[in-house]
Structure formats: C-alpha cells, structure tokens
Amino acid sequence: MERLFVLCCVFGLSLSLPSNVFEFEQPQNGGNHWALLVAGSNGYFNYRHQADVCHAYQILHAHGIPDERIVVMMYDDIAENSENPVKGNLINHPDGPNVYEGIIKDYTGKEVNPETFLSVLKGEKDKVNGKVIDSGPNDHVFVNFVDHGAPGILGFGSKTLKAKKLMDAIMFMHDNKKYDKADKVKSEDVPLESLRRSLNLVSSKEEAVNIQQQIEQILKEREVVNKTMKQIIAMATDDHVLTTNVMETRHKISAWDCYEENDYALRKLYMFVNMCEMHVPREAINAAIEEVCNVGKVNIQ
C-alpha cells in the first residue's frame, strides 16, 4: 500500500525539532521511500524556505533514504548571497548546524517552477532533465513544499500553482497506482503538530520545556491574528451580524478586483474573500486595515 504524505508549509515557519520527529512507517512488500523537497521562493528575505528544505533533506538522510530517491528543488540563491554573513552556510534555527552542507540540488534557478514540480511529482521523465518521483505501487511518497500561499494557490517565486492542477497531479498518481492512501496536515497546523509530537521524543526536561514554550508562543501569535482580524472586519463592516458572518463562513472567490488588493494575514484571507463577496466596499476594507494595523494594537488579556 502506497502512501503520499503532503506537507505544505506555505508560511515557511522554522522549527528546532529532534530529527526523529518525522518517523517514517516502513513500506511493505519491498517498497521504498521517495521524497520531493521544494522551496518555491527566491530572494534572501525568504531565507527560511530554503533552510527548511535543506533541514528536511538532512532528516531524510539521517533516516537512510538515499539521494537517488530524494528530489530537491530550490532556487539556490541564499548560501552564497551577498547578504549571507556566513557564505556557504544555511541554518534553520539560531546557532544551528549548517543544513546546506552535502545537499544535492536537482533543480535550481528558473527550473524551480510549477510545471517542473508537477512533472517531477507525476514521474514524467520525458518532460524534465533530472530526477523524478519514479514511485511504484508499494512505495511511500513524502512531499515537503515550502513557500507562501493563499486560498487556492501556492507561491512559486513570480509564478503560482493553482490548487486544481495540484489535485489533478495527485489524481494522476492515484490512477496510475503511485499511491493508495493520502495523509494530510493543514499547513497552518504543521508547526503545532510537529511540536506536540516531538514532546514524546525528547530526552530531557529542558527540551520539553523549550518545546512547550514554542507551542505557547504559536498559540499566542494566533490569538493576536484572530483579534486583529476581528477588529479590521468590525471596523470595515460596522455591523455586528455581518462581522460574525464574515468570520464564520467561507465564500468562493469571484470578486477578484477587491480580493487581490487585500493580502494581509494570509491565514485569514478567506475573511477578506467573504467581505468582498458580501459587497463590503473595498475602500472601507483598506481603511480598516490601515487604521487597525498602523494605529491600533491588539492586547492579549
């Protein structure tokens, strides 16, 4: 039975976790592990995305997965970047090890794009000039995609990957017996799930305390986002009932002109979609964002 595990970290959160957090179930009937690691972004300001992919590569190697079954896609413009104080070095947490060391990069620069990603995932050897996920019916496939995103899209530098094309690729894999069971974790829950799982693997009280503090910090930040969004929506709509509807429902996007102007707080973008679909004036939305984000502060009681 094949498993496709898709881990889409669209916010690129870096975590300091034990390497055995990601324990892999061993394939049956002679199956193998395959992995596709993708950092879709470029630019030094997106340092964390490529650092996280390099970290994932090191974890896979620590579990004995060979390079011939690991495909790495990253722009590779960080390690030797003029802004990088330690050339040839990438870390994914403060004072951490160089996770860039020894990594084999299969696709770099402009090769990191939606089309190549989909071809590699589907195993289309004739459409790319490098390795692909050449998995079979007994193999396990792990996909780790790191970049920004929004409802229905994943970022790929200056390009985007639409959700439908990704789902079509997964269905192609299913129809061609490249996986039989899919596990998924919501991108917004990946950091918390990883930290909570790691609590069962730590070897000291100090490590447990550190991880618990990370969990509490994430929960605190989420509360700030929720309170900020509520303030923006309440100010923009000036209607208690409409505010509740905006926060508790999910509209499909059709008012693109309004929606595309308000890209604050990616996790809560559906609320901006709702306001646009409920015909809240875009001027009111923008004014509320400016008022709350630039003037007001959210206090956690």
Architecture overview:
With 301 residues, this protein is an alpha/beta fold. It has 9 helices and 8 strands. The chain has 2 domains: 3-198, Rossmann fold, CATH 3.40.50.1460; 205-294, Topoisomerase I, Chain A, domain 4 (Orthogonal Bundle), CATH 1.10.132. Helix content is 38%, strand content 13%. The radius of gyration is 21 Å and the shape is globular.
Strand content: 5-15%
Helix content: 25-40%
Task: Give a count of the beta strands, DSSP E runs of length 2 or more.
Answer: 8
Largest sheet report = 5 strands, parallel
Please name the CATH architecture of the largest domain: 3-Layer(aba) Sandwich
Order of helices and strands: EEHEHEEEEHEHHHHHH
Structural class: alpha/beta
- The tally of structural domains comes to 2
Rg measurement, Å: 21 Å
Low-confidence stretches: 5-21, 259-267, 296-301
Q: Roughly how many Å apart are the termini?
A: 49 Å
- Return the CATH topology of the largest domain: Rossmann fold
Instruction: Tell me, rounded to a whole number, the average pLDDT.
Output: 80
User: Regarding CATH, which class of the largest domain?
Assistant: Alpha Beta
